[in-house]
Amino acid sequence: MTSILVVEDNEDLAFGLATALETGGYEIEIASTGEQALSRARTVPPPGLIILDLMLPGLSGFRVLRELRDEGNLTPVLILTARAAEADKVQGLRIGADDYMTKPFGVLELLARVDALLRRTSGSYLPHAATPAAPEVDPPRYRFGVVEVEPATREVRRRGKPVPLAPMEFDLLLALLRRRGAAAQRQELLREVWGYEASVVSRTVDAHIANLREKLEDDPTAPRHILTVRKLGYRLQS
């Protein structure tokens, strides 16, 4: 059974989230402070997913997320918060969140997003997941510039040195590589990588693209490979 760590200091909301997720077939653990969240996220094996509030006693959700990513912890994180400002959404996504939802929220939408994140990162069957499409046949290795990508092992190297990518960052990179230079619309990438049919946070793709440029481009402010296609989306140039 997939485990989910719910980080929420409101006891009633935490109980409601746990009940909904347990009904959906998940095993739930609750942390009410940032310190507890870090401790439980570092367990072996780690949780399959973290649902993270931002306004917590002690360490903030932003601080928790940054510390986990700085440690190389790539557990998928879905931020669930009352902070709806675009600046907060962008910050959360830029420091490593895989998705961002605001309160109040619908339980069915939450379950759909949880399932989509776990489906993309584990590849296993999930309670609410749609039947997956047949996997794409990738070459043993992609190359662009000084970057090598091995789909089978989900490894990325830049000038021969490993580059750690979050699961959604890798899937986004692979989606661009598979197009072999063709442009991809933002909504198309949201459907393919995140599994969303409905409208979601508009800056999700943009924030993950920015992360890829920071990790893979020589000059992220003037990228040579991960390019913006004006009024459309993005493409990857070898």
Describe the structure.
It is a single chain. The protein is α/β, with parallel strands linked by helices and 238 residues long. 38% of the residues lie in helices and 19% in strands. The protein has eight helices and twelve strands. It has helices at residues 11-23, 34-41, 61-70, 86-94, 107-122, 167-178, 186-194, 204-216, and strands spanning 3-7, 27-31, 49-52, 77-81, 99-102, 142-144, 147-150, 155-158, 161-162, 184-185, 226-229, 233-236. A five-stranded parallel beta sheet has the order 2-1-3-4-5, with helices on both faces. Helix 3 (61-70) links the parallel strand 3 and strand 4. Helix 2 (34-41) packs parallel to helix 3 (61-70) and helix 4 (86-94) packs parallel to helix 8 (204-216). The longest helix has 16 residues, at 107-122. The radius of gyration is 18 Å and the shape is globular. Mean pLDDT is 88; it is low at 123-134.
Fraction of helical residues: 25-40%
User: SSE string, helix = H, strand = E?
Assistant: EHEHEHEHEHEEEEHEHHEE
Average of the residue pLDDT scores = 88
Instruction: Give a quick account of the main beta sheet: strands, pairing sense, barrel closure.
Output: 5 strands, parallel
Shape call: globular
Give the strand tally. 12
Q: Strands across the major sheet, in which order? A: 2-1-3-4-5
Strand content: 15-25%
Derived structural class: alpha/beta
